[in-house]
Amino acid sequence: MPATLRSLLHRADLRLRLLTATDAALDAPLSWLHSSDLADPTPFLADGQGLLTTGTQFGDDTEVTAAVADAYVARLLRRGVVALGFGDEVVRTGTPPQLVDACTEQGLALFEVPYETSFIAVAQANADAVARDANARNAWALAAQRAISLAAMRPDGLGATIAELSRQLDGWVGLFDVSGRLDRGHPADGVPAEDLEVLRTEALRLLRAGQRASLPVTTEHRTGFSLQTLGSGGHLSGVLAIANGGALDRAGREVVTAVIALAGLALQQNRELARARGLLRTGLLTMLSVGDPAVVDTTSREVWGPLPAEPVRIAAVDVPDQDLDTVVDWLELWVQDRPGRLFFAADDELFLCVGAEDTAIVEELVDRFDLHAGLSDGASYRYFGRARTEAVQALDRRREGRPGTTEFGDLAREGVLAHLAHVDVDAGAVARAFLAPLLDHDRTAGTELTRTVRTWLEQNCEYDRTAQALGIHRHTARARVEHAGRLLERDLSVFATRADLWAAFVVEGA
User: Fold this and answer.
1) Residue 130's pLDDT is what?
2) Euclidean distance between CA atoms 80 and 102, whole angstroms
3) For 464-507, what is the HEC assignment?
4) What is the pLDDT of residues 390-425, one digit of tens each?
């Protein structure tokens, strides 16, 4: 039973008499009892303590003035004193009525100590209660830590640990992952959705700061929570949320500290496993790049789920070294929730493979972590290596500007000449993309648009000379060139377009 004024009043041997107190004051923790007759003993007192006095400070007058009593009680309350005991018949007979009135009006608990009961006996009784409570709380803390340690050994050790902490603290406990998602919460539906959104926002703020920290949070339902980051500074693994965590005593805080250590250990083990999975991902990325998707798909299905369906697009993302672990953790959670929609691996850059119509994940990643990214055109796994090169080319261009995403198709539409000033750009890849509509049409339809356009350029764009060189009618030559312009979505009557097209032929050798 905690040490309170109510527990002291229950001691029949002390024969204390309550003069005035609210229920809250009766049950307030009473950490210690001092005795003093100073007019202002507050410099020697602390919050949550009680005071015993004989009333000497009120002078020799029979009556204590209301002003003196009011000022005295106000000083005690400002210091955080929770109870006042007045010794009867030591200096005065009975407790001064003015003091009783002041305590009643201002809400300070007041009790009377009979002459036969010494102050030291009252103080000793309170000290014994404090010690018993401390021993009981210590025993509880040890039992709670033992139960939590056993829970951590279960198959879902982390989930069992959170549930056991909730049971021990008799309140809601939740774990937010690195993406700010509530990974586990106990009891289920123990917190309103509005409060969860507030907690998620604050958890994300702590995670983005990247440093170990704790934060008290009060929601619109006036519920208090305590947030505590998990993991080491620079690589946080999540945030632990505890309802009314700010009101825990020392024993409660020790139990929470034990859970933080166990959760951190579990997350560290998960991180080591994630590193091994990362190495496997890098190896699979290499196999995809050399054109061996069958083995990669089989392996991926066993670990993460199937590869995204063809056609796919490759994103190359520039991630600072200090943020890579956090980004990978976030992507792992994304893959876990949406199997078959993303494959990713870290090599020279971070590479993402997504469905051609499912590039929203790339934009979400770039926006969330403020990154630079390049995105390839759509391709089959047979041409994965080429698509990877396109993504890198687009990323190189994106690095010249602000964070965001550049698509390789945009580079191709700019033309070949626009990229000759960029020494890091593979002009051949751009030229191939520029000419791709012509080459693909010729391959599928059996036409000769590419040869016709190149001959037309070689003949100074004269249709008669082109027709003569190819042995066709000049109207046929004109029709082929105009068809090529439509496929390329370029106006071939413009000199700049002709120059760009010629440069593509020269670079590609088509």
Assistant:
1) 86
2) 16
3) HHHHHHHCCCHHHHHHHHHHHHHHHCCCCCCHHHHHHHHHHHHH
4) 899 889 888 878 899 988 877 766 555 555 545 455
User: CA–CA separation, 16 vs 123, rounded Å?
Assistant: 12
CA angle 471, 477, 478 (to 5 degrees): 160
Residue 487 in tokens = 């496929």
Q: Which of 128, 66, 122 is nearest to 99 (CA)?
A: 66
- 353-380 pLDDT, tens digit per residue, is 999 888 889 999 999 889 999 999 998 8
Instruction: List the one residue out of 431, 467, 432 whose CA is nearest residue 451.
Output: 467
Q: Kindly state the DSSP code that residue 458 receives in the 8-state scheme.
A: H
279 burial type by CB count under 10 A (0-12 exposed, 13-18 middle, 19+ buried) = exposed
Those residues whose C-beta lies under 8 Å from the C-beta of residue 125, and which sit 6 or more positions away, are 8, 11, 14
Continuous segment of H or E residues that includes residue 255: helix 250-289
Helix (H) or strand (E) run with residue 206 in it: helix 193-209
Nearest to 254 by CA among 163, 145, 159, 160: 145
Element (H, E) at 317: strand 312-318
Evaluate whether 95 touches 124 at the Cβ level (below 8 Å). no
| 3-class secondary-structure state, position 238 | strand
Q: Which region among 115-119, 172-176, 221-225, 377-381 has the lowest average model confidence (pLDDT)?
A: 221-225
Q: Give CA–CA dist 146/240, Å, rounded.
A: 20
**Can you give the pLDDT at residue 205?**
86
Largest CA-CA distance found in the chain, in angstroms, rounded? 133
Contact 7, 83 (CB under 8 A): no
Q: What angle do CA 428, 432, 437 make, to 5 degrees?
A: 165
Quick one: angle between helices 495-508 and 427-445, nearest 10? 90
- Six-digit token string for 447: 């036409």
Evaluate whether 233 touches 211 at the Cβ level (below 8 Å).
Answer: yes
Q: Are strands 182-186 and 173-176 parallel, antiparallel or unpaired?
A: antiparallel
Q: What is the pLDDT of residue 64?
A: 86
Q: How are strands ordered across the β-sheet holding 235-243?
A: 182-186, 173-176, 235-243, 224-232, 214-218
Cα gap 360→371, rounded to integer Å = 14
Beta strand ranges found along 187-253 (DSSP E): 214-218, 224-232, 235-243
Q: For every residue of 382-431, which 3-state class applies, written as one string?
A: HHHHHHHHHHHHHHHHHCCCCCEEEEHHHHHHHCCHHHCCCCCCCHHHHH
The reply to whether omega before 2 is within 30° of 0 (cis) is: no
